[in-house]
Design goal:
By secondary structure, the protein is of the alpha/beta class. The chain has five helices and ten strands; from the N terminus they run βββββαβββαβαβαα.
Length: 270
């Protein structure tokens, strides 16, 4: 049996931002919640570089993303989450040299020095180290760990689905996801290395949700994003699967719990 809770919005915040930076201001508590889009946490450009042409995303793995770094001294609490964009096409640059790529490597005769998993770990360490050594940053940085997806029967673009998943998994039912686990490992390693390099008065805390929420395959939008009221999930005439989303979270449970954990960390550390 599931207990249903009802939540009521007590205040409508004013959005004073734009698409790049959304700023939600809550007048009753003089609180501002800001959302900044930084898919990789490091500098990114689509301009040509060496033998990588224009249009392909190029990541400077040793340079933190200035789109959020320039603002960190204004914030009391910063929550970071990243990882899944490293499955997208991209080029990896270290010390002004192309060292690897994801879904892009023109010279198959040469071995890449860094793959997307390694690149993720480097990006986490780069961003967190920059924050932990910034002379004027004294805030609390919380790293929410890699979010597990639950596609079954294929990847997100190959018919994968979490249709019919209405209850959490039980002990013994969990199927380990190697990619999720190794990405989580790289993230935790990058976090630990940054902590050891910290020189300022800021705080770094890990909010580890990965393993626990591997059990929550019922918490995704799944077929619920479909406009079909009957949620029919059979393939269409062209053979393509219907819209599925087993990566993001919106159903009751996971995100609510993340917020409760987040608030507890903030209350304890501030």
């Amino acid at each position: 049996m599931y207990q249903t809770s009802w939540f009521f919005q007590v205040e409508v915040p004013k959005n004073r931002g734009n698409r790049r930076m959304q700023r939600f201001y809550f007048a009753s508590t003089s609180t501002t919640i800001i959302r900044i889009w930084s898919a990789w946490l490091v500098n990114q450009t689509s301009e040509p570089f060496d033998f990588a042409p224009a249009g392909v995303a190029k990541l400077q793995l040793d340079a933190p993303d200035e789109s959020f770094m320039e603002f960190i001294t204004d914030y009391d609490v910063i929550v970071l989450s990243s990882g899944h964009w490293f499955a997208k096409q991209s080029v990896y640059i270290l010390q002004d040299e192309i060292v690897g790529g994801q879904l892009w490597w023109p010279d198959k005769s040469k071995t890449m020095k860094i793959n997307n998993i390694e690149a993720f770990g480097v990006s986490v360490e780069t961003a967190l180290t920059a924050m932990a050594r910034h002379p004027d940053y004294t805030g609390l940085t919380i790293v929410r760990t890699f979010s597990p997806d639950h596609y079954g029967g294929g990847n997100w673009n190959a018919g994968g689905s979490c249709t019919g998943k209405v209850r959490p998994l039980k002990d013994g039912e969990l199927v380990e996801d190697e990619f999720t686990n190794v990405m989580h490992q790289k993230q935790v390693t990058g976090f630990s290395r940054a902590v050891k390099k910290k020189t300022n008065k800021s705080k770094l805390k890990l909010m580890d949700i990965t393993e626990a929420f591997e059990y929550r395959h019922d918490g995704h939008p799944g077929p619920h994003r479909s406009t079909d009221p009957n949620k029919i999930t059979k393939r269409g005439p062209d053979g393509r699967p219907p819209p599925q989303d087993c990566l993001h979270w919106c159903m009751p449970g996971p995100v609510d719990t993340w917020n409760e954990i987040l608030f507890e960390i903030i209350k304890r550390e501030l």
